[in-house]
Design goal:
- The structure is a homodimer of 460-residue chains.
- The first copy, chain A, is an alpha+beta fold and 460 residues long.
- Chain A is built from 15 helices and 18 strands.
- In chain A, the strands form four sheets. In chain A, strands 15-12-14-13-17-18-16 form a seven-stranded antiparallel sheet, with helices on both faces.
- In chain A, a hairpin with a 4-residue loop joins strand 5 and strand 6.
- Chain A is globular and about 75 Å long.
- The two termini of chain A are 37 Å apart.
- The relative contact order of chain A is 0.12.
- The model of chain A has no long low-confidence stretch (mean pLDDT 95).
- At the A-B interface, strand 9, helix 7, helix 8 and helix 15 of A face strand 9, helix 7, helix 8 and helix 15 of B.
- Chains A, B: Keywords: FAD, Flavoprotein, Oxidoreductase.
Chain lengths: 460, 460
């Protein structure tokens, strides 16, 4: 009996083998397409289902790609021929909300946005806010250690997860982390799982650290500036002054061009860069006033508001960037992060690489935490090698600045070739050995992030 | 040539073999004494010194115990016969403070308190604040994932470290983590190192995430209450209301008895429990007022102040707890953490165990995060087995409540026998395998936290 037959008998009704289901698993929002169609898609309903799939996969040496909503930007959830896809997207229950303990226990398939709407009535929220939050799952957010717009003030996903239940490649279930705020029992395998991109285990339940809703009104600032360097300089001054914006976003001139074409407004007439800031909490108005002073001291002009509708219009400009790029072709969103005071240098490098390769690289930045998204628009499904070369130059420079290849999108398939540049050979080998501890047969998300011991990579 | 001779030739002037130096390394603030005197103490001055020691140790199969200031409470930094001690306490330099990037790069031997005084002039601080901060090192804080009083609002050490340089058992140097706020390149080995208690590598440099100093005055609340249950109930209500005290400490009646004997004040005449709260930041006064309402609604009385001197007196009551216990005998401070709303149940269990064993177990709690310190005072150096039995009952109950053996002190030697109860056999084996990846010869801090593969523990 082949693996698909075995799965179908063991898990009747949840094993899909129709062409549409399988084709959808060949890609994600990176646009990358796997080499072939996977064998089956299993839509797990429970931890036991996931254990059953893993046991059968191990017994038959079949690779398993775990998948949430398929919104990844680095090809981490893509499945190819000979592989089975284990989806947790139907496991959407909120098992517990404890206001007293400021935590929620959830299944991995719930969408981030749906969770936050449910938490709202308890006066709580879960801080990770990737741009994809309305269409991405909590499990996927955890598997990628998702970031978003609010990280400088409210932290990344790693800081918002207390504990996980994880099914190992062979079907065994472990509980890692703690239900408590503190806990130092042994190695922090919960943190190790967060951002492991489906290569160490399948996340089947999460205990999330919640925050009380932030009280008071939000102050919003918008500024069209003469250059993105001015914007990066203002952002650096705001951070250096110890002010803590909830959100601080910066768009360059190219982004405004694409946005203008998309929305029909001549945004370039307003400036060569757009800076958007929001302050929340008890100090919001005072902090916004201090930021306006910093902006005015540079000679730039800015507007501020506490009116929600006006603020939403200003935020919408930022939200439309990626839709405007996607409307123009296939989109590759890069994701370097650099120390906050190196943002100007990174923007300058983007301009140099644009010139060298004759490309347009619209770039937006989470300016509060130095995370830039240089973006490439092209025609067709495959990223042209020239664009990878240009992106590679940006990666190398980000590393020279003390930064990283990927602030929040992960390595997946698309950045694997640069991983060793950042980690160094010794650490890369350690990481491959850790992979072998959890998944000795190399069955979980093979080919993603790093090569198993015995395949590719540096000598070992 | 034996290892001590080799070390002395390779590292002239920093290898101590005098009795006083070696005897001091046989214990820490847990009071536990190792079985014998270590071979040598090496006081490293640089990363290269640490690498040299590790290379020689690996070449001669000599165990290495890394050590900071020896303030650990679980025996994690204790060295015995046949072992060498690698101290980083002389590596105290602050290599960089970047206000713009809100980070500092430091050597591991600097004291937490000294670092924070140096950061103060930059308008920044490092949040971890173990009670030992004036006498404990940053490297030690990281090795133990130290907690302290401010964790509920400002997080534990793991949330305050961006990157580490680590020397492996064989002398190789790796850099883990990121200088940036975000970064998702491969597995999070920086988080794995934090709290690893010297068993995976030697921390030789740390890039710390700083915070801007909190502006405004601090509001302090003190209340003597009729029972510790009342205090735990108030603390739970404050958390459930979404209020965020910077510090919320609770002392039981026994603690007040010891404190009274030590300070000559009749604190028990004032109440059977003491609750201390501090609020900081822009919302401090409003939050303190809301907390006073919660307290008054229970029928209890409390005082509040924004006067610094009065506040210091109230805080001093809390600070004197452990000195008052140490004055009465040898002190074993236990360290369970439970979900916030289970604190009352945990205090009740302490009272039951007191009765059952005829012991006094003064207990203080970081009530903002559910971390309780049931404490045992006895005569002599060895913890009587009866006290371990009583402590074991508390551990078991904390686990039943969804809590942990250790909120902030670590496993070290003293809690090793209970580790498997919390982790389960599968996870314990994974942890031992991870240990083997980093330290295949089992030379780093042997016998601490977990047994190497091939020794003790469950089958593998």
């Amino acid at each position: 009996m082949d693996i698909v037959e075995q799965l179908t008998r063991a898990l009747p009704g949840i094993v899909r083998t129709d062409a549409a289901s399988l084709e959808a698993c060949r890609t994600d929002r990176s646009g990358h397409l796997s080499s072939g169609r996977p064998l089956a898609l299993i839509e797990a309903r429970s931890i036991e289902d996931v254990q059953t799939v893993c046991r059968l996969a191990t017994a038959t040496a079949t690779p398993v790609v775990s998948r949430g909503a398929g919104t990844g930007l680095s090809g981490g959830g893509i499945a190819g021929s000979g592989e089975i896809v284990l989806s947790t997207v139907n496991m959407t229950a909120i098992l517990e909300v404890s206001v007293a303990n400021q935590l929620a226990v959830v299944q991995p398939g719930i969408f981030n946005g749906d969770l936050n709407r449910a938490l709202d009535e308890h006066g709580m929220w879960w801080a990770p806010d990737p741009a994809s939050k309305e269409i991405s799952t909590v499990g996927g957010n955890i598997a990628m250690n998702a970031g978003g717009l609010l990280c400088a003030k409210y932290g990344v996903t790693r800081e918002a997860v207390l504990a996980l239940k994880v099914v190992l490649a062979d079907g065994r279930l472990i509980s890692v982390g703690h239900r408590t705020v503190k806990g130092v029992t042994g190695y922090d395998l919960c943190a190790l799982m967060i951002g492991s991109e489906g290569t160490l285990g399948i996340i089947v339940e999460a205990t999330l650290k919640l925050r009380p809703l932030v009280a008071g009104s939000v102050s919003t600032i918008a500024a069209y500036l003469d250059s993105v360097d001015t914007g990066a300089g203002i952002a650096a001054k705001i951070s250096a002054a110890g002010l803590q914006p909830a959100l601080m976003e910066l768009l360059d001139a190219r982004s405004l061009e694409f946005l203008g074409n998309y929305t029909g407004q001549d945004l370039r007439a307003r400036g060569n860069a757009y800076l958007l800031i929001q302050c929340d909490g008890a100090a919001a108005q005072a902090e916004a006033a201090a930021m306006m002073e910093i902006i005015h001291a540079t000679g730039a002009k800015a507007e501020s508001t506490t009116d929600e509708e006006t603020a939403n219009q200003w935020v919408e400009v930022r939200r439309q960037v990626f839709p405007s790029l996607e409307a123009a072709g296939t989109l590759l969103v890069e994701d370097v992060a650099v120390p906050r005071d190196a943002m100007t240098a990174m923007f300058d490098k983007v301009a140099q690489v644009e010139d060298k390769y004759g490309l347009m690289i619209p770039t937006s930045a989470h300016a509060g935490d130095g995370n830039l998204h240089p973006s490439f628009v092209f025609q067709g499904a495959e990223v042209p090698e020239e664009i990878w070369e240009a992106a590679g130059e940006l990666f190398t420079y980000a590393l020279e600045l003390g930064g990283t290849l990927t602030g929040e999108h992960g390595i997946g398939l698309l950045k694997k070739r640069w991983l060793g540049d950042e980690l160094g050979e010794t650490q890369l080998l350690l990481q491959r050995q850790i992979k072998a501890v959890f998944d000795p047969d190399g069955l979980l998300n093979p080919g993603k992030v790093l090569d198993p011991l015995g395949q590719g990579g540096p000598a070992h």
